[in-house]
Amino acid sequence: MEVEILKKKKLRVTPFRKEVLDVFLKNEHAISIQDIEDALVEFDRITLYRTIKSFTNKGVIHEIVMPGDVKKLALCDGVCDHDSGLHEHNHIHFQCRLCSEVYCVEVDELPKIEVPGFTIEEQEIQAKGICAKCS
Amino acid sequence: MEVEILKKKKLRVTPFRKEVLDVFLKNEHAISIQDIEDALVEFDRITLYRTIKSFTNKGVIHEIVMPGDVKKLALCDGVCDHDSGLHEHNHIHFQCRLCSEVYCVEVDELPKIEVPGFTIEEQEIQAKGICAKCS
DNA sequence: AATACAAATGCAACAATATTGCATCTATGG
DNA sequence: CCATAGATGCAATATTGTTGCATTTGTATT
Questions:
Q1: What confidence tens digit (pLDDT) does each residue in B36-84 have?
Q2: Pick from B91, B92, B86: which is nearest to B121 by CA?
Q3: A2-129 CATH
Q4: Which residues bind Zn(2+) (chains A, B) (predicted)?
Q5: What is the average pLDDT across A72-77?
Q6: Taking the domains of chain A in order of start, what are their residue ranges?
Q7: DSSP secondary structure letter of residue B120
Q8: Is residue A113 a contact partner of residue B111, using CB atoms and an 8 Å limit?
Q9: Could you say which residues 65-124 of protein chain A have a Cβ atom less than 7 A away from any atom in strand C?
Q10: CA of B13, closest CA in chain A: separation in Å?
Q11: DSSP at A116
């Protein structure tokens, strides 16, 4: 599983990368760098940061920053494959007011915003409320 | 101007706070903490951080984090008045791909997203494209 | 299977960003 | 004008992220 994901994105397969990827695969919600550190038994912090950067650049994961919260990371759907900026997501980022977890939620269609004078090329939606589990 | 804003939000009026508020009033786009530091002649960095925190808590300003960019700050419309989380904005956050500036753009109506199982209470939209000036 | 080489790792040092404690000062309501 | 809660300034420290460099490892190629 981890191997296929890495190979598909042309990333070299190493034990450490598989471990990091495992942490993402074991969580259905977005995780913080601290969460990853807690899940790993022994690791080098610098290598972790570089791994995260590689994963982000190749579209394996993407960053999510909810207002007032630490940066979180989540697996991409498989369509992301560029080096910076917003990714082509068909999902919104949702944070639950009760459990504080951040989820990437699939939506059929994102509404198109129109703003006079501005050309909108990409957009992302961040929402807060109550998640399915806490309802 | 600065005094009214501060008093309305029940914040004590000090020379430093007026200076910081001035920096916001002089920019029509969101600014980084670095931008504020550059605009001030002599200041205490810790006091600046605390001022920003007070302003944010009282809804004078709000944080904007665009993917891959540093945190930026912008004045609130006047409707924000709570201590954390998303604010009740009627605008979207827009970053220009060319000049990199971040703008809060007023929109008549934000589209409502529906997600089965999730109760969405607040939402924020982040967009990228070309701004009015760079068009 | 051996090899060559680009890429990843691990360590040290450091840079940027943000917070806490505490003593002092000041804006504001009475 | 005074009392005092809140703001400031300084020192120390925490958190988060980066860079350089020597060494190791994964992968494609022979």
A1: 999 999 999 999 999 999 999 999 999 999 987 899 999 997 555 444 3
A2: B86
A3: 1.10.10.10
A4: 96, 99, 131, 134
A5: 92
A6: 2-129
A7: E
A8: yes
A9: none
A10: 25
A11: T
